[in-house]
Design brief:
Strand 1 and strand 2 form a beta hairpin. The protein is mostly helical.
């Protein structure tokens, strides 16, 4: 087979699931359907904001960048570090959160483009690098430096580099490969189970093509996020595939090992009919979907209404600056989603002036927030409270 033929990525996806994959698809569909179901939509939306920061943290961690949640939160507020290196990482993290939020908004509005389409993938890349400083656009190619054009495929011989042991298709063929990729991963032509399988295999095959000079890993994870939503397992943004990929099932090296394994060429006549190993793709799809199940299950436990209510009360009890009545405000916001500021004396049982001071303290801590200075308040999840409110969400410092 001609190494530059678009058939080089075949089998691009699995036509039929194995029994093991079918079981995992059924499990994933079931757990995703119940994730956050008991939460008020306003609370769920605020938790989705938290998950975007978590997704960004783990996506950066996969790239070797440890940008802590507080740094990401500060970047979103426009508070950038004076150190250029840390500032660039903050800008990168803020861009990831911004793009994922727009993907979620488009999906909710019924306006999300086909996640595997060339137009959408170029848009993801272009939006991610929209505010990038010059240093983030300059990439090394051997002994040369090139300036990357955001939202454009690899197109020059200088863009052709090895990715570990893998040599992606030549730059002059990338557009053809991505046209083939778009055709093979048209989710609107698939049933639900096929869409879920396609999300897994597309993640590998996109990175196998390596269509952009840089930023492919981040774009592929955003693509997977969009595909999960289309396939009906996105759970309104309440879980993240990046956390699972960064942590693996057995070790943090799982992701790289499984991606490398899925690069395996066909192993004889019983290993499918494509250029790549069908058996290796089946193993990758099964692993990827098990990672998804693991993450949805983890977030379901973390966002369980009763469990979250208990952790909020415990947080108030342990915080020396918070009065016990704060727990009533937080519980009210958790259950109702939001409430009017004029209700605080009724909720806390305190005199109006005392209740107002109490609310001011909670707003200053970021545990409650509102869209306007006098608007309804809802539950928020600031970085300084995450370790206690959501144990194991991030690695131990």
């Amino acid at each position: 087979m001609n190494v530059e033929s678009v058939d080089r990525i075949e089998p691009a996806r699995l036509e039929e699931p194995t029994a093991a994959i079918a079981d995992v698809i059924a499990e994933l569909s079931a757990v995703a359907a119940t994730l956050g179901k008991a939460l008020h939509p306003r609370t769920a939306a605020n938790l989705a904001d938290l998950v975007r920061i978590m997704n960004t943290y783990y996506s950066n961690l996969i790239e070797g960048h440890d940008t802590r949640p507080r740094d990401i939160e500060r970047a979103l507020a426009g508070e950038l570090d004076l150190d250029e290196g840390r500032r660039n990482l903050q800008i990168e993290a803020a861009a990831h959160v911004r793009v994922q939020a727009e993907v979620d908004r488009l999906f909710a509005a019924g306006a999300l483009p086909a996640p595997a389409s060339a137009a959408f993938l170029k848009w993801l890349h272009r939006e991610f690098y929209r505010d990038a400083p010059e240093a983030m656009l300059v990439i090394k190619a051997g002994d040369r430096q090139l300036r990357m054009q955001a939202g454009q495929w690899r197109s020059q011989p200088a863009h052709d580099v090895a990715v570990g042991r893998h040599i992606p298709p030549s730059s002059h063929r990338v557009a053809d490969f991505m046209d083939h990729f778009e055709t093979r991963f048209r989710l609107d032509r698939m049933g639900r189970a096929a869409q879920i399988m396609a999300m897994a295999s597309a993640h590998h095959r996109f990175n196998y093509i390596h269509p952009f000079p840089d930023g492919n890993g981040r774009v592929s994870r955003l693509m997977s996020h969009a595909m999960a939503s289309v396939a009906g397992i996105g759970a309104h943004g309440l879980w993240s595939v990046s956390r699972g990929l960064a942590r693996g099932l057995e070790s943090r090296g799982d992701y790289k090992r499984m991606m490398d394994h899925a690069d395996t060429p066909r192993q004889g006549d019983r290993d499918g009919r494509g250029n790549l190993s069908e058996a290796a793709l089946k193993e990758f799809v099964l692993w990827f979907l098990k990672v998804c199940v693991d993450q949805v299950t983890f977030m379901s436990e973390l966002f369980d209404l009763n469990s979250l209510s208990r952790r909020l009360r415990t947080y108030v009890e342990r915080h020396p600056a918070l009065k016990p009545e704060v727990a009533r405000l937080l519980d009210e916001a958790l259950l109702r989603g939001e409430f009017e500021r004029g209700e605080i004396d009724r909720i806390t049982g305190l005199p109006e002036r005392t209740a107002r001071r109490l609310l001011a303290d909670v707003l200053d801590l970021g545990l409650l927030g509102s869209e306007t200075p006098k608007g309804k308040v809802s539950l928020r999840f600031p970085a300084h409270a995450l370790e206690e409110l959501f144990p194991r969400l991030y690695p131990q410092a």
